[in-house]
Every structure is written in C-alpha cells, then in structure tokens.
From TrEMBL, chains A, B:
CDD domains, sorted: E_set_Esterase_N (cd02858)
GO terms for MF: acyltransferase activity, transferring groups other than amino-acyl groups
Superkingdom, natural source: Bacteria
Lineage: Bacteria, Pseudomonadati, Bacteroidota, Flavobacteriia, Flavobacteriales
Name the record gives this protein: Esterase
SUPFAM superfamilies: alpha/beta-Hydrolases, E set domains
Organism: Galbibacter marinus
PANTHER family hit by this protein: DIACYLGLYCEROL ACYLTRANSFERASE_MYCOLYLTRANSFERASE AG85A, ENTEROCHELIN ESTERASE-RELATED
Pfam families in the cross-refs: Esterase (PF00756)
Amino acid sequence: MKQLQLLLVIGAIIGSFSIASGQETIKEDFKPSTLNQPGQKYPQVNSQGYARFRIIAPAADSVKVSLGLGGRGGTVLHKKEDGSWMGTTEGPMDEGFHYYHLTVDGGTFNDPGTLNFYGSTRWESGIEIPAHDQDFYALKDVPHGQVHKILFPSKVSGPSAVAYVYTPPGYSKDQSKRYPVLYLQHGWGEDETAWSNQGHANLIMDNLIAEGKTEPFLIVMTYGMTNEIKFGGLRDFDITPFQTKLVDELIPYVDENFRTIADREHRAMAGLSMGGMETKMVTLNKPETFSHYALLSGGIYTPEDIKDQSDIKLIFLSCGSKERPESIKNATADLKESGANVVSYISEGTAHEFQTWRRSLKELAPLLFKN
Amino acid sequence: MKQLQLLLVIGAIIGSFSIASGQETIKEDFKPSTLNQPGQKYPQVNSQGYARFRIIAPAADSVKVSLGLGGRGGTVLHKKEDGSWMGTTEGPMDEGFHYYHLTVDGGTFNDPGTLNFYGSTRWESGIEIPAHDQDFYALKDVPHGQVHKILFPSKVSGPSAVAYVYTPPGYSKDQSKRYPVLYLQHGWGEDETAWSNQGHANLIMDNLIAEGKTEPFLIVMTYGMTNEIKFGGLRDFDITPFQTKLVDELIPYVDENFRTIADREHRAMAGLSMGGMETKMVTLNKPETFSHYALLSGGIYTPEDIKDQSDIKLIFLSCGSKERPESIKNATADLKESGANVVSYISEGTAHEFQTWRRSLKELAPLLFKN
C-alpha cells in the first residue's frame, strides 16, 4: 500500500515535469478560431490554448507563422502530401487575442483563413485563444448599444478625421437623457478600430450594463498616431497635434452632436500602451478637461505629477501580470499615500496584449462617474 | 507637300492601330491607389487606368494577380533583382473599384499593400482606378452623417444580427425631425459592410445633401446571404429567411430605435445583383411594406409582376453599359406603357462592378420620397 502511494507520488512528479518541459500531450479537441473568416476551418485552437495552422501553397518552399510559444519565436509549418502546410504551436498561448502574420517564401502575407485587425501599422491576421473569463466580452442576448462611425472636421488630420462612438443601449430611445463620456485610446501601430474590433469595448459595456454593474456612458475612440505619419518611433513624440485634435476638435464635436454631460466631472480619458502615454500627457496638460484618468499598460502617475489631488476623481493603473506589475503596485501605494483616489488592477497570466486591456476596461468602467 | 500629308495620314493610321492592338504607350505617372494601407506605395494606378503591382516574396517561384485587362485573365508578375515581383496590367482597367487577390506559389493571399473588402465570400484586396466622376463619392469638407453599427435581436441569424445604419448630417442635432428609410442590399458573396466600404454610400449621400440634390433619409444595410450558410449557388435560393429577418426583425427594430417615418410611403428597398433579386422578391411579396423599388444590375420587373401600378411610387432599374442595358431599356419601356412611374439609368463604360452601383445610388437618391 505504501509502495502504491509512493508510485503515485512519483508518477505525479514525473507528470508535472513532463508538462513543465513542454512534453504535455496535445489534446485533439481543436476547433476553428472564433475570428476566422466565414466558412474557414483554420486556424484552430484547442482547449489547452495550442493553435494549429493550415495554409494552402502547393509550390511554396517555406511557410512560417509569426506566432509561437508565449508570443516569442514563431511556428514553422510542414508540407503535407495534399499541398497544404500545417503546424501547431510548440506550447499553449496566453488567453485572448493575438496578432500574427505569415512568411511565405520570404514574403509577409496574412492568413487567408482569418479576419484582419489593425496593429503594427498594418492590417494583421488575428486569432482568439478561448479565455476562462471570455463570458464578459461575449456577444449575448442582452440589449446592445451602437458603434457610430463619425467624420468630424479636423485641421490636424483634415478636412475630416474618423472617430468611433459607442452609445449605450437606450441612448436612441430616451432622447432626454444625457451621458458622461470616456475618451479611450489605442496603442502604437493600432488605430481607432482597435477597441471595438479586437477589444470588444462595446460588448464589454453592453454586458456590464445588462448586469447593472456600471452606469451607462459613451466611449469615443479616435486615431492617436497623429504625428507619426512616417510610423517612426516614440522618442521624438510631440503631444501637441493629438492634444489639439482631441481637446479642441473632437470633444466640442462630440458635445455638440451627442447627448453628453459636457463638463470635466463627466469626462474621463484612458489609453493602452502608447495611448496611456498620451493619456498621461493630455490629462496633466488639461486638468480642466478631464476628471478621471486611466493608464492601461501605459505607465504611471507619481504624486509629483499631480498638482491638486482633490481635483481628480479617479486614477486607474493596470497591466498584465507578465508585464511589470511591481511598477503599478508601487505607484499605487505612493499615490494612495499622497491622498489620491487610486485603483490598480493586475490581469493574471497575461502580457502586453488585448486580453489585459479588455479586462482592464471591465474593471475600470464600474469605477467611472460614481460621484 | 502631298507626300508629307500622306505620310502624316499613314502615321496616324499606324498610330491608331498601335493603340487598338494594345501597344499604347503607358504613361509613367503612377501613384499609390487610394485604397492602399497606410504608408504603402503599391499597388499603383496611372492616369490611363493601368494598375502596377509590387510584391515582396524573394524565395517565391511564381506570383500572379487575379486582376487584368477588363477584369479577364490576370497579370503575371516578374521577379526583380531585389527580390520583389512586379507587373503592370496589359491594358487600362474600368474606372472605379475592383476586387482582386494574389496567387503566390499556388496559394491564394491578399496583397499586403492594400485594404481588404468583403466580396466572393472572403475579405479580398481592393484597388481604385480613378474615375472621371469620382468627385461625387469623394470625402469633402461638408457636413457628414454617421454610419451606426447596430446589433438587433434576430431569430433568423440570432441571437443578434448586424446591420449598418447611415443617418444624415443633422440627424443627431434636431431631435424632433423624422426621416424616410432606404433598405439597401449588397450582392452575392458580399456583406453588410460593402455599401459603406467599397460603395461609399455615406459619402455619396453627404455630398448630394450638401448640394441640396436629395432629401435626407436613412439607409439600412444588413447581411443578405441568410440561407447561404454553405455559400452555395443561387439556384435553390429561398427568400423566406431573409424576408423574415428584414421585414419582421430589422424594420421594427429600426423604427423603434431611429427617428423614422414608419409607413410604406416612406420606405424604399434597393439591391445590387443578388440583392436586386432579393429586392424584387421581397417588394412583390410585401407591397404593404415598401413603396419605392430599385434593382441595380439585379434584373427587371415586368408589368405582369405588378398587381397595382398606382400603389408603387417609383421603380428604378439600372446597370452598366457593359452589362445588358437592352434588357433594362426594354423593361423600362414596357413598364412605362403599363403606367408605372419607372426611371432607368445606364452607367457608361462600366460592368458588373461597384462603380455602376455607386453611380446608380447617386441617380436613385434624388428620386426617392419626392411625394
């Protein structure tokens, strides 16, 4: 009996080792990714988070996928007798959305099986690894808001610039009610489509509102790489053009054309990554415009940044546990000590990717416009 | 002197022959297509309508473009020393928008240089050949309407189905004004994004309204291949699911959530190609729902189709001059003789493509909801 127990313990240890060294048995329960183009069977994902690719290119010499274990490296596909190329990631991927592309005989192409999403200053392929908490951004049978594509006059990006505006369920019915507004920015290489397409900001809000977890508000999303026409680095970033476009052009247009509560108490700004950097700059430059600030994987505020703590309704800082959560935790402690109303959130098991930001929005929304 | 004149005449004849046999000199005034991804230099188009492609694929053995002279055949690209593949169409293309894709070593991919547009039941590459009349769908410094993405409850495509709703400039400001509605359908293999993305329906309306050429109205666009889940042919097409989705699900939702004039006199239906077939079926099945009917490259009505001529405010029939304009002209004559208020339009120099339908919408809009 004791020997049996010992064998079980040894077996369990060997089992753990197998998993840790990447020898885990791959479950053959692959299903098409939810982001595939209509009718397309590949790419597929399994219940463990592995991704499997199939590309038709009979005369190619080499097909690679930029996506691999933990987002590093990539996956080399192998040619089958039917002229297709197949391959599976070496390990499970992080939960949530990932950008990727193919390299076919040295050329960069998108996977014809999937939908495209704007990232890295180009439309890239996207794949969705089912997450244990995917319910909060699922398309459910609840009342839905609308996402409006608007063209507003802009001297910065003119004659017209694009923005998307989420209006909550009921916005179009009760025409006397007015709403607060969250201005929500994408990251470097993305655009104004990112928060709805890959972020599901609209579905996150629809679901939170249906559950009574947040006050309904508008979300406005516009292009933030205003002075990055040549898609260069961030070193010489100048906030002026974007700040002008946002504060002097977009906000007045939104306040004139939507039923907003047009004061600083009912206006928030948030951004992910580079959008966080922009949020920090704009909120500190224009404290008279915004009262709620949120940086998602986008840096921190220090107590020295803030002139008048009592004037700020909320500071929200977040990132993934695979980023640098200590930085967020330390900044939060410092801000708390200085008297700020600060809330932080660490997304467990995720990195600098959209699952972190979807979860951050879900945590942020209920905190906004509470008083 | 006579000899010189003879030489000139012969020269002119030889010149004409050269042009007619495809030896026309290609003007080297190529510019990036307006549908390229941000920062991408290729594909390019010149002032004559030629298209030039450049694809990076150093190790590929063969790269072809599905687009060629008059849409037939295709263009074979040739490898350059720098590892790129280049080629120019054999002749000028028709004005306007064209779908295309690449074949790289036997595999189907999109051109990484261009934006994607949903057609042929997949997201395809798109290119824009500048048209002499492109001003009517240009983005101008005029007041702009909005395109709303809505999710409406649907038992046919449920739990939620997508539609896009164009609301004209001013819709969001004067909250007492109500508007007529045009339900506008895409063609086979396309979806609810086609009329805004490749059709520029919103810009066509913005420009017509700014010039005072049309009454403002709403345009609603939803997915019409409701019973084509397997993307099969049209032979066994059953209109029932789409008609239910449109008439019993979408129209009531739009009338409840937008400021419409919710009666048949202020409701029109139009569609291109397969969408025209659907328009014909639905309008004849539901004369109590629509009063204005339009088929764009989508067939004809005969006097026998119509039970009560006096009940129909407008029948509009159109197609490109490179389609079968005689069929439209004959049907128009027959309908006129039977007493119908029928208007027809032939788009000069275009085939079964979006330039025909952009122009058709421009001609149709001013005729709608006149009385």
